[in-house]
Amino acid sequence: MTVPNLGIAIVRQYERGVVFRLGEVRGVREPGLRLMIPLVDRMRKVSLRTVTMPVPSQQVITRDNVSIGVAAVAYFRRVDPVKSIVEIEDVDSAVNQIAQTTVRNVVGRSLLDQVLTDTQTLNESIKDILDRITQQWGVFVHLVELKDIELPQTMQRAMARQAEAEREKRAKIIAAEGEALSAGRLAEAADVIAEHPIALQLRNLQVLGEIAVERNSTIVFPAQFLTGVEELVHFVERQREGAAGLQPLARPTAVRTSTGEPAVPRPR
């Protein structure tokens, strides 16, 4: 912005005034009320505030031949008012164009997986290139970020299937590890129960106590039923063994004599 040649100029806090005297740079004026020589000096004000410049989306072919759309945003500011006026005609347009070219070149040299997962490295590479180029224009690039990456529909579906398969693989691995741990714990519990049979009964009683809290169902435990049947069988066998140990007396048979009178009974 060129200030009319009135001999007086006001420079704001975020600006610097570059004074040209008869076409020659005569210095930079700091913020405040500044006096100039009428009809001789002219001042161009330069804003030192950070500029947010969107880099429009553009189609880029990655190193693995995938066409994607990439949009970015750049943050820069002028640090040398004289260079930003003398060295280049339109610094904003120049930064925009070089930012688009740099984004396309850096992304085009990268693989798709790197673009999607390692954007921080790409951002740093783009920033370093821009900062090195724009330094001669008196511009400092604060930050460059890739903000939007558009993938083809076919690639999105393929990546979704890949992610789904990866999750299924991890789920199966976790389930297998859980089964292995569970089998080991069950084996240890079986060894403990084998040494202490009463532990199984205590566990059954604990489960019964947990179920009884709800009081909304009837549960039959086969373990107690089979134990009761075994005890009944053992009881019957003991009764039979006891009965076999006592021999009952033989029933006497009556014998008649030749006269027809009954004789004294004779045991068989």
TrEMBL record:
Taxonomic superkingdom: Bacteria
Region (Disordered): 246-268
CDD domains: SPFH_eoslipins_u1 (cd08826)
Xref: InterPro entries: Band-7_stomatin-like, Band_7, Band_7/SPFH_dom_sf, Stomatin_HflK_fam
Domain Band: 6-163
GO cellular component: plasma membrane; side of membrane
SUPFAM superfamilies named among the record's database cross-references: Band 7/SPFH domain
Family the UniProt entry places it in: Belongs to the band 7/mec-2 family.
Protein name in UniProt: SPFH domain / Band 7 family protein
